[in-house]
Q: What sequence folds into this?
């Protein structure tokens, strides 16, 4: 995959990730380019977005609300975690199914 496609796809995934503002800025694109240069597979980066989003969504109901994520950099530590982990792709498929079950209005709260 070429750099431009990688950056475009990662930015689109970020913009659609629950809990983000839905906006991407120049520094987000630069960070996506750095991930490409570091040869972080797109699936790893997307799985990190998914994992962080699930962790934010599956919190106790009485937990204080979280601010919206305003930068792709927010996910750096989770990307590093996914790179180092041996988590199976089946787990990420499970998370995708769980997130798909949540009503859209609950995701946006």
A:
């Amino acid at each position: 995959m070429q750099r431009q496609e990688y950056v475009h796809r990662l930015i689109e995934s970020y913009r659609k990730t629950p809990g983000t503002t839905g906006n991407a800025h120049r520094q987000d694109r630069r960070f996506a380019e750095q991930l490409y240069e570091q040869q972080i597979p797109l699936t790893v980066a997307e799985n990190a977005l998914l994992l962080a989003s699930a962790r934010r969504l599956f919190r106790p109901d009485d937990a204080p609300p979280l601010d919206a994520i305003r930068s792709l950099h927010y996910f750096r530590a989770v990307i590093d975690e996914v790179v180092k982990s041996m988590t199976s792709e089946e787990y990420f498929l499970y998370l995708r199914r769980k997130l798909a079950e949540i009503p859209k209005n609950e995701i946006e709260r």
Notes: DSSP finds six helices and no strands in the chain. The two ends are 35 Å apart (CA to CA). The first helix runs from residue 3 to 16.
